[in-house]
Amino acid sequence: MKDFFDDARQKRNAEAKRAPTQASQVDHGPVARAFSRKDGSLLATPLVPSAATVPTQASSRPGMGAIPYDGGTTFRVWAPNAQRVQVAGDFSNWQSVELQREPSGNFSLDVPGAKAGDQYQYVVQGKYGDWRWKGDPRANDVTNSTGNSVVVDHKAYEWKHDWEFKMPPWNEAVIYEMHVGTFNDEPGWGPGNWQSAIDKLDHLKELGINVVELMPSAEFAADFSWGYNPAFPNAPESAYGTPDDLKRFVDEAHKRGIGVVMDVVYNHLGPSDLPHWDFDGETYGKGGSYFYTDWRAKTPWGDTRPDYGRHEVRDYLRDNAMMWLRDYHMDGLRLDATKEIRQASGANNPEGWQLLRDINEAVNREFPQKIIIAEDLGNEAGLTHPDGANFDTQWDANFVHPIRAALTAPSDAARDMNAVADAIRFKYNGSANQRVIYTESHDEVANGKQRLPSEVGGWDAGGYHAKKSSILGAALTMTSPGIPMLFQGQEFLEDGHFQDGDPLDWKKKETYAGINQAYTDLIKLRRNWNDNTAGLRGEHVNVHHVNNHDKVVAFHRWDKGGAGDDTIVIVNFGGKHLSDYELGLPSDGTWKVRYNSDWKGYSDNFGNAQSFDVGGRWTGKDGLPASGSLNNLGPYSVVILSKDK
Fold first, then answer.
1. Which pTM value belongs to this model?
2. What is the DSSP letter of 565?
3. Whole-angstrom Cα distance, residue 125 to residue 98?
4. Is the pLDDT of residue 162 over 90?
5. 85: which of 99, 306, 574, 617 fits an S-S bond (Cβ 3.0–4.6 Å)?
6. How confident is the model at residue 12, as a pLDDT?
7. How far apart are CA 524 and CA 209, in angstroms?
8. Torsions phi, psi of 511, nearest 5?
9. Are 568 and 645 in contact (CB under 8 A)?
10. Do residues 228 and 270 make contact, with C-beta atoms less than 8 angstroms apart?
11. Going by DSSP bridges, is the β-strand pair 637-642/567-572 parallel, antiparallel, or unpaired?
12. What is the pLDDT, as a whole number, of residue 474?
């Protein structure tokens, strides 16, 4: 399958390098010849017009970009400072077809004979008279990030399994962050692709995952990237496959009961291979109409922050969000680095807030069942407040940082149980579902940091302490209030740090089969598969037991309360085995052990401290009306209790 995608990419790239007949007749010197028909290359004169019969009026059809209709394609592009805009492509033998100016600053035309699969580019006469090739900023497909735009008919794909799927409620979602290029691949050649990712979807289903969050997969420069450098935001990354391949991935995920969330980047574009840059010949000293051109242009990734003050730019980004949900049937979006949208150089940016509200209002109007996630990490409750940006949820720095600090502390004495307790109980606007909680993400396992097994175990990333830490982190993620998320490979103890050219080592799934089982068991408890831990999906938490001396935290989770709902989680962050450990319980009766992470089945070198069911009695403790004694609590272990219905 890899060979098929490599061959397809090579064929498309070769096609993209064909020079158009008319442009090749003009000698612009060696540099211009080397970049003939590449995005942004200049032309001394316009292309020779096509002799084909085309309308001479702007299109009356709605929509932006290249939109096929029966018998042709409508082309519409925003170029407010351009003198003239032409389109050239396969449909015109790469001769120019003149687009007509609209009062809005758009240029458009219905072009008979242009069809899905045709390659094209715009030829733009800028404000000062110069001509240049330009890719379509709204291209739905490209041959590569410096190649041609491609007409796509989104209505042509036949969805097979989409009707079978229903997005889980937020309190039942378990997210798996995936980077398509490294999720299932072998070193060498190109990155992983949509088909190779499909091949591992059954693993996610067996693990209990019901939402996949894709790292950005819009067209970026070159073939290997994290994806946070989008050049063509509307076009799926060509190295991963075609638009239909991405739709097939979503379709196959839905077949397995797995929703798909796409990570999108609106805080900056590029910064390289951008068709938007100087699109119509007026740069305003920076990048032109699509970008801020004052101090607000600057971002940590280049001076390419979109100009949210222009309604055309906000519409462009909002339309991109809706495209993923509408045309690719995505079940949600995760907006990257929203702090760099709502702020510019640390100052509040009301225009950025307006973009965030525009996107959420549009989604709630058309797709209220789809989840929109903010990655802000700025502890801003307004992001998920109805009177603020109104996101459904946001990644939570208040969980990941103190929990990782406790898990990676150099000694037991350095682990702060009060900080752990605060991390467990934290909520935005009083709602558990307004935060996504995790111990590993692409950012937390790179940028000078490593995966937890490597942070804890060092050279011994598959050893006792690495395994214990991994399960402790997973247990807290699956039992604390919030929407839990794993990073790819976390479930089988992937180590080192994340790199876009370093695929997951799937052999570890067999090597650490017990760890994979430990994660699977935790996810089943989180999703209440056995109908006896419903409280883990509830809003309520009471961290009722904090023992900083022995490094133990215990908390009560519940939804409506009662047998089969009330759940007690006991976490030992210390290296001591504890016996006959007394703690508070919500009621008397038999509290059964649902999970014991010290079980030898998870790892041969675990202590296998057998924890028996706890008999609750009406003797109050820890502020709860009942109490009980846990006979054994293994070192660096988690025990989960609940009652039968």
1. 0.93
2. T
3. 11
4. no
5. 99
6. 40
7. 9
8. -60, -40
9. no
10. no
11. antiparallel
12. 98
User: Is residue 46 over pLDDT 70?
Assistant: no
Query: How far is Cα 64 from Cα 209, in angstroms, rounded to an integer?
Result: 36
- Asked if residue 197 lies in contact with residue 180, where contact means CB atoms within 8 angstroms, the answer is yes
Instruction: Kindly state the DSSP code that residue 344 receives in the 8-state scheme.
Output: E
Length, in residues, of the chain: 645
Query: Which whole number is the average pLDDT over 359-375?
Result: 98
Digit-coded pLDDT (tens) for 421-452: 999 999 999 999 999 999 999 999 999 999 99
Q: Which residues of 400-477 form beta strands (DSSP E)?
A: 435-437
Higher-scoring residue by pLDDT: 185, 6: 185
The DSSP annotation for 262-284 comes to EEE--S---SSS-SSTTSSS--T
Of the candidates 392, 393, 406, the one whose C-alpha atom is nearest the C-alpha of residue 439 is 406
Question: What tokens appear for 600 in the block?
Answer: 């030898």
Q: How far is Cα 9 from Cα 572, in angstroms, rounded to an integer?
A: 52
Q: What is residue 10's predicted lDDT score, i.e. its pLDDT?
A: 42
Q: For residues 564 and 416, give the distance between their C-alpha atoms in angstroms, rounded to a whole number.
A: 31
Structure tokens at 31: 């540099």
In single-letter form, the type of residue at position 496 comes to: G
Whether the CB-CB separation of 489 and 508 falls below 8 Å is answered with yes
The token pair at 392 is: 């459904």
For residue 209, give both structure tokens.
């995952």
Structure tokens at 315: 């519409």
Give Cβ neighbours of residue 538 (< 8 Å, ≥ 6 apart).
Answer: 171, 432, 557, 558, 559, 560, 565
Contact residues for 386 (Cβ-Cβ < 8 A; gap 6+):
none
Q: Is the pLDDT of residue 60 over 70?
A: yes
pLDDT band at 140 (very low <50, low <70, confident <90, very high): very high
Residue 185 in contact with residue 305, Cβ under 8 Å? Answer: no
Q: How many CB atoms lie within 10 A of CB 529?
A: 12
pLDDT over threshold 70, residue 8: no
Residue carrying structure tokens 């280049």: 302
Describe the chain by its helix, strand, coil percentages, rounded to 5.
30, 25, 45
Contacts (Cβ under 8 Å, ≥6 apart) of 510 = none
Token output for 324: 């993923």
